Amino acid sequence: MILHIDMDAFFASIEQAINPRLKGKPLIVGSRNSKMHTVVCAASYEAKALGIDSGMNSNAAFKLCPALEFVAADQGKYIWTSEQILEMISGYGLEVAYVSIDEFQIDIANYAQPLALAQDIQKQIYANFNITASIGIAKNCLLAKLASKLNKPNGITILSEENLTEILGKTPVKKLCGVGAVTEAVLTGIGIKTCLDLYEKPPQFLEQIFGKNGLNLYANLHATERLNQNQGQSPGEANDLTLTGTVPSDKPKSIGHSYTFPMASLNTGFIRAWIRLLSEMVGVRIRQQNLTAKTVHLWLNGPEIGNFLGQKTFQQATNDSFEIYQRALKIMGKRAQKMPKIRALGVTCSNLTAQNYPPLFKEQKRREELLKAFDKINTRFGEGSIYPAITDLTRRMK
After folding, report:
1. Which are the catalytic amino acids?
2. Looking at the domain assignment, is residue 344 inside a domain?
3. What is the pLDDT of residues 228-244, one digit of tens each?
């Protein structure tokens, strides 16, 4: 059994928790400081009730609600909170996976009281961070993620063998993780309107529609799996769970970060800047644990390409963020000469080993000293005090 934690309106909730004046008010978090010329990154539930949501132009949002509160996004604040939540839930002694900045999964196997565990996690998150989370429990990752979205905010949904058919029959297929407009149109066109319609289709039928990805989708829907087992990919946009990095109690098997843009972008400079920023975040976490990585994974998602997940294992292990970035670009270069529209992306490193030998060459030694100085400055003066110049483009462009 898998327990999936999905934070409620994460960015907006953090801002409301930090500033009590914003509690209970419609609030948007903008991608830029100019509140009338930005895009809504996140909206509080009070704003959602007025029809305001992520991806909306802020100007349009203020037309719906002139009294709307505005806060510019502070990425460091959200990352820090996410990492603190991960550390807290790791304290339960169960196998934990970092899915994204606001989602986590726990392998609860045959845990005797999953509901009590979910309630305690919700209680601890609220007590420590003054924000809420919704939780889904099901036999595999894909269904647990779906369940976490069915009773928001601050809800708990358990998909059991007894209620699975009833709940899936009431749930539109578009609710399934990653099923965007393209895949939804394909599924609706062949009479699949609910998650139950999809769940009941035989693997041969899905293979005819989606090829090998159809078999992977079937496997993901029906598997009874542990968190660290390999998972297949669903068709089109339908699965990004392969990015999940397991974090056991001693050391991780993979480390990754991902980000979803407010809207799809064709701007190559903007996309590369985000890959650089994510590579930096991954490299810092790897170095903090005195590890190096041989395998780099790059995930791209967009309306034209659906999900693209590429990976490559290199002979020389690294924890250099710039080298991780360069390797990710090599993987991206295999996708296409012309960059398609990208809505979300992620960088993950795996095949991690302890860094137990000194650099051999002068250039390697110089680079290692530079990275140590970089990390020391950011540790002393705060994350982001010094950063690669290219990452400025993540704030200025879209």
Report:
1. 103
2. yes
3. 543 433 333 333 322 23
